[in-house]
Amino acid sequence: MTDTPSSGAPDQTEWLTTSGGVRLRETDRSLKAGERGPTLLQDHHLREKITHFDHERIPERVVHARGAGAHGTFTAYGTAETVTSAGFLAEGRETPVFVRFSTVLGSRGSADTVRDTRGFATKFYTEEGTFDLVGNNIPVFFIQDGIKFPDIIHAGKPHPDREIPQAQSAHDTFWDFVSLHTEAQHHTLWNMSDRGIARSYRMMEGFGVHTFRLINAAGETSLAKFHWKPKLGVHGLLWEEAQMLGGFDPDFHRRDLADAIEAGAHPEWELGVQVFPDTPQQTYEGIDLLDPTKLVPEEIAPVQTIGRLVLDRNPDNFFAETEQVAFHVGNLVPGIDVTDDALMQARLFSYVDTQLTRLGGPNFNQIPVNRPHAPVNDMLRDGFHQDEVHRGVAPYHPNSLDAGCPFLAGDPQGAFLDNPVRVPETAKQREQPASFDDHFSQPRLFWLSMTPVEKQHIVAAYAFELGKVHEPAIRERQLQCLAEIAPDLCGGVAAALGLTAPSPKGELADPDPSPALSMLGGSYPPDGRTVGIVVGPDSPAEEIDGLCAALRGSLMMPMVVAPTAAPLGGDVAVQRTFSTARSVEFDALVVADGAAAVGSDPHVMLLVEEIFRHGKALLAWGNGVEVVATAGIAVPAPGVKAEESSSIAAAELPDLLGAHRSWERFALA
Ligand code: HDD
């Protein structure tokens, strides 16, 4: 757990050279006319060094600018072979991948823990070409047609006059748009849930959002939605934690991902599909599969797992890999095709287009992280940053000069097939189906599927966000939308804002709740969870060392928190001092024997009090129990325990962390 890279350090054993490979005698002083004289234009090394530096930055992504990436492997179970001929989904096939997680609204340097949708983009370097699954951690989208993308993003980004607020949805333009353009209400409700403030990239579901068309070896088609299911469960921060982390550790998610991989706690997901018959209506149980603001509950279309993703290698260089990776919804392989979803269709254009500006030309697929692992033999030529030295004289087809090559492939050679889907005879029109006008029944389904504590968080999130909206008409319009979703949700938010809850104007739908939409329940491995260990100057060093080793052995990440940075007992490393530690960095706190010597140190009191208030596991042994009592916390309480020894604490932690928090500690109104 360091801020230094794990690998890829410059080779200190070689000579320093210019970019032309000439060895350098000096790089700290410019070439001048005498000791005190002016700098000479002749100094080619100075000019090269400064010029290159002047051009180090490239435009950040217009959306999803803030992100973190990792390498890994996808292993297919073979269970998808009945529905798709995609080679990388054949049983046992291993495919290298690069994944980039992101927030949507913030700029490159913004904080990780803001309330926002998270991007979950996966590049599969398959033997049949690159397949990109460019999804989010929310299964529905704000808009039904890509032509609205600039509108939602302009509304969500900082106000154009002062360029504030950064990476926030709690402002007038966002709520102005989503309350007017009510198809955004479903996605917005997910944002207001704890999905909008993920605990970790490792603890998020991922969704391809759109419906895809799968084609099997016999040429039969079906429609499908992709899901990523995290091994560690789906967990959120509390809003207070998210806000505090924005200051204490704006890199929280980036650090969490890199540290976990470095510690061997390799994040894992299973890829799953919901499969639907490919009927002319393209609906399932009345749900329009081409409407990306709608999901299909797992209870009526189970997610069938088809493979496993493990991320096990951090990038060597952030810019080269995470910044320059370029995803494209049109990177498809035989066996997987797009549908007529109007959101997806617009994306097919946007992703290549944006790289032309961002990566400076059309050859971005030659950048190492974007290079296909399948052989490439295209007829694209020249352009900025062309790395290939193409041979031959006839980059056109047909030709007779380069032996009439390259050949075109057919089915047996694995050529991509644009599936010959029938297009109904119809008129060109700027219209959409009537079912797309239903904007409230699915948000209502989501709300009805939440547990009481999740509902409480959602009400608080709306109250915060709308509390930051200045224009009364926008608040009132959004309250009207909430009334159409659920009067109890609307009532809770209205009460917090000091407003009267409006009545619904439409009829409320009566969907069956979908328990799969709730984040609560289940028990998960503690991989990569951080555990703070508060010690005093005389805490038993050997025992603390043993506790750290035991936690590491179970893939948890201990952090010793001591009065000073001096190693405990001379050789147990201290990761945080009382003045540098803050509770939000930890998933659990252990107060060690010997900690009582620090008395009621305000930093320690705050640590213990916040850990308790945030429902996190709090264990103590020996006189550490006195510290918990001094902080005013009764022992035992749910998730608060006095242990007989450090080894019992180590054994208890996985179970306590497995449930993420002691939810019983949150009093429900
Ligand atoms: Fe997008 C980036 C996900 C709709 C246009 N998008 C981008 C990334 C993710 C998504 C995860 C970051 C990729 C990376 O890490 O480099 N976008 C989505 C999802 C959508 C969606 C799940 C709806 C289901 N996007 C969408 C629309 C448009 C775009 C409708 C335009 C019509 N998205 C872009 C873009 C970006 C992008 C401007 C910015 C950087 C990039 O592509 O490479 O082209």
UniProtKB/TrEMBL annotation:
GO terms for molecular function: catalase activity; heme binding; metal ion binding. The keyword Iron applies. InterPro entries: Catalase, Catalase_AS, Catalase_clade2, Catalase_clade2_helical, Catalase_core, Catalase_haem_BS, Catalase_immune_responsive, Catalase_large_C. GO terms for cellular component: cytosol. Keywords: Heme, Hydrogen peroxide, Iron, Metal-binding, Oxidoreductase, Peroxidase. Heme binds at residues 61, 100, 149, 347, 351, 358. Residues 1-21 are annotated as: Disordered. It comes from the Bacteria. GO terms for biological process: hydrogen peroxide catabolic process; response to oxidative stress. Decomposes hydrogen peroxide into water and oxygen; serves to protect cells from the toxic effects of hydrogen peroxide. Belongs to the catalase family. HPII subfamily. This is Catalase. It comes from Nocardioides luteus. The lineage of its organism: Bacteria, Bacillati, Actinomycetota, Actinomycetes, Propionibacteriales.
